[in-house]
Design brief:
By secondary structure, this protein is an all-beta fold. Helices cover 0% and strands 44% of the residues.
């Protein structure tokens, strides 16, 4: 069961998910766990609770039934884990790309994957996605 591990740091006043090298992609016929880890300058923080007004993880659009599990906090709030079942052999019901948002508190300040600072430029703002091929 392959896992996807995504590193989350602070960049220009927002959370940044490193998706380089297609780290956000689950291949067709695969299932696994997606793990977001607070690292580097965000490692002292924790992801927000899933029932908070700004939850640690939130989908920005609907997802297909049965493909993704419920996000859970792990490692004392330093990780978020989510199951991804991309096992439809024809890629009809489980393939696609979905945008999500993360919230974490670092040093008493809440940050998200959306810009929270006027210093952010358009080049640094990305909508993190999960892509099932």
């Amino acid at each position: 069961m392959p896992n996807l591990e995504l590193k989350v740091t602070l960049v220009d006043g927002s959370l940044n998910v490193d998706q380089s090298g297609n780290a956000n992609q689950m291949g067709r016929g695969k299932s696994g766990i997606i793990i977001w880890k607070l690292t580097g300058n965000a490692s002292s923080g924790t992801f927000n609770a899933m029932d908070a007004s700004n939850p640690g993880f939130a989908w920005k659009q609907g997802t297909p039934s049965g493909v993704f599990g419920q996000p859970i906090l792990a490692s004392q709030g330093k990780h978020i884990e989510l199951s991804d079942t991309n096992t439809d052999p024809n890629g009809v019901t489980s393939s696609g790309e979905w945008v999500y948002q993360l919230f974490a508190t670092v040093g008493g300040v809440t940050y998200s994957t959306m810009a929270t600072s006027g210093r952010v430029t358009i080049e640094t703002i990305t909508d993190p996605t999960i892509k099932n091929n």
